[in-house]
Amino acid sequence: MTSSDIHPTHPSKGAPTASVKKSVQALWHGQRVKRLLRARFGTQSLISVVETHCADPQCPGPATQITILGFDMMRRCVVLHRPVAEVTAADVAAIRI
Q1: How confident is the model at residue 55 (pLDDT cuts 50, 70, 90)?
Q2: In whole angstroms, what is the distance from residue 15 CA to residue 76 CA?
Q3: Which of 26, 29, 44, 66 could bond to 78 as cystine, CB 3.0-4.6 Å?
Q4: 59: CB partners within 8 A, 6+ apart
């Protein structure tokens, strides 16, 4: 086992690998979508944003699953058939729960 196996950096530059960059970008976009959802539905809700594999053959790639749990303890789920990085404020505005 080498140091590059342990640490997720390029052995000569110390730069993050592609998988680490992808994870960081997914986390950033997930938090961005959560901020949009909180602005739309209020801060008193538990919000989860997850990018998942879409099982629908018509869907071109990953899907974004949004789960909102309000004070009424009702769980509301919405699936947007696009990656989390492509979710826009207009997509969030179109959500009706």
Answers
A1: confident
A2: 40
A3: 66
A4: 81
